[in-house]
């Protein structure tokens, strides 16, 4: 689960991290009062969407010459004008795709005098099985570009879960940044704070880009991106309350109600598969034969008829879907249950596009019998290769 920047900063502030004062608004009429709560004279007006690259993004409605989704303002009048310009319009960034995201919230924040921009993130380093700091002196940039062009400028510090951030760990991170004086003192306090927040709130990612050194030498969290491990949200009602479903795909929200692993994609062949690995292989082979998957959908090993029916309805709700491939290997999952669910869903929602079904495993013959005797226009496939070729041909 992702949250907005302003929410992430409030979470980090609760642990003692240094963040600027700011006010979140949802209407341009709130901009003036929000700005008056801040000291000024420099303000930053930030679009709040679940995507990076906001500063370099462009608003669809404002033309190619429009400013991006993060803007400086030197007067309250400029704050108001920017709010009127940004709210309700669609911001397109490198991470949103061409569709962009509508800006429904802004964060008006006190400006900062910046001396240096640094990069910091916390994530689970699976190569060592520990939470690790990933730090670089190249803040304010895409970390992927830094990793590609100058990997030597990225330092990874894995943290022993038994000790947390030790003084030696904090010193190593401070050395990687080249921090001195009061900035170093701030860093030695900040790094354990960020680790504590990451662990206690079961975060999957905590990214501060940039972490700034101000002209007075102090550190400040200038931007913050936080996502949470969805499997741990049951023990964090306070974090669940921060969820903004307007930022999520409606189909993904519906899928979550049935405990379905669903991710919307940009293709036109809908996929329903059991098992994440098999789902990935199914998407790969669709691409191999020249088309693109419309989604990732894993119904899981213990799906029942209701879950399969829900999955099918979610796929068919996507107007981009021109064909559907159901690929089931029945181990724990029984092929007859899948077949019953598919038949029920097709009869319920109607079938307007080609449907290819490949079944293998437990009760496969019974499953095929159910499909064959349904009287529906369902194409059977012998194996995954055959299924992929058939659905791609049907869509083309």
From TrEMBL:
PROSITE patterns listed in its UniProt record: ATP_GRASP, SUCCINYL_COA_LIG_3
Reactions catalysed: (S)-malate + ATP + CoA = (S)-malyl-CoA + ADP + phosphate; GTP + succinate + CoA = succinyl-CoA + GDP + phosphate; succinate + ATP + CoA = succinyl-CoA + ADP + phosphate
Superkingdom: Bacteria
UniProt GO molecular function: ATP binding; magnesium ion binding; malate-CoA ligase activity; succinate-CoA ligase (ADP-forming) activity; succinate-CoA ligase (GDP-forming) activity
Keywords: ATP-binding, Ligase, Magnesium, Metal-binding, Nucleotide-binding, Tricarboxylic acid cycle
EC number: 6.2.1.5
Enzyme superclass (EC): ligase
Cofactor note (record): Binds 1 Mg(2+) ion per subunit.
SUPFAM superfamilies: Glutathione synthetase ATP-binding domain-like, Succinyl-CoA synthetase domains
Keyword match DNA-binding: no
Quaternary assembly: Heterotetramer of two alpha and two beta subunits.
Protein name, UniProt field: Succinate--CoA ligase [ADP-forming] subunit beta
Organism of this sequence: Aureimonas fodinaquatilis
Chain's gene name: sucC
């Amino acid at each position: 689960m992702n949250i907005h920047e302003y929410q992430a900063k409030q979470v980090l502030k609760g642990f003692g991290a240094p963040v600027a004062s700011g006010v979140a608004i949802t209407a341009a009429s709130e901009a003036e009062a929000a700005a008056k709560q801040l000291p000024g004279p420099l303000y930053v007006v930030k679009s709040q969407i679940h995507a990076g690259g906001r500063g370099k993004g462009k608003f669809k409605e404002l033309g190619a010459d429009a400013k991006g989704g993060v803007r400086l303002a030197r007067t309250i009048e400029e704050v108001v004008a920017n709010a009127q310009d940004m709210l309700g319009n669609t911001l397109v960034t490198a991470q949103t795709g061409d569709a962009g995201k509508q800006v429904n919230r802004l964060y008006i924040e006190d400006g900062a005098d910046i001396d240096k921009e640094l990069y910091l993130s916390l994530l689970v380093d699976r190569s060592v099985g520990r939470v690790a700091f990933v730090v670089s002196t190249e803040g304010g940039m895409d970390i992927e570009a830094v990793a590609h062009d100058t990997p030597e400028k990225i330092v990874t510090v894995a943290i022993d879960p038994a000790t947390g951030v030790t003084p030696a760990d904090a010193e190593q991170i401070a050395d990687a940044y080249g921090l001195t004086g009061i900035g170093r003192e701030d860093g030695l306090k900040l790094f354990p704070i960020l680790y504590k927040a990451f662990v206690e709130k079961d975060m999957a990612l905590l990214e501060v880009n940039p972490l700034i050194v101000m002209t007075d030498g102090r550190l400040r969290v200038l931007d913050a991106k936080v996502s949470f491990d969805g499997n741990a949200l049951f023990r964090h009602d306070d974090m669940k309350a921060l969820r903004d479903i307007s930022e999520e795909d409606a189909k993904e929200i519906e899928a979550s109600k049935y405990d379905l692993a669903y991710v919307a994609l940009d293709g036109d062949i809908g996929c329903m598969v059991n098992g994440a690995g098999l789902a990935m292989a199914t998407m790969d082979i669709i691409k191999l034969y020249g088309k693109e998957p419309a989604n990732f959908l894993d119904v899981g090993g213990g799906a029942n008829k209701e879950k399969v029916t829900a999955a099918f309805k979610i796929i068919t709700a996507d107007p981009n879907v021109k064909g559907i491939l159901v690929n089931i290997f029945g181990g724990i999952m029984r092929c007859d249950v899948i077949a019953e669910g598919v038949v029920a869903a097709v009869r319920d929602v109607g079938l307007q596009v080609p449907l290819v079904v490949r079944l293998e495993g437990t009760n496969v013959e019974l499953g095929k019998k159910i499909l064959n005797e349904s009287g529906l226009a369902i194409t059977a496939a012998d194996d995954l290769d055959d299924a992929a070729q058939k659905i791609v041909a049907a869509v083309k």
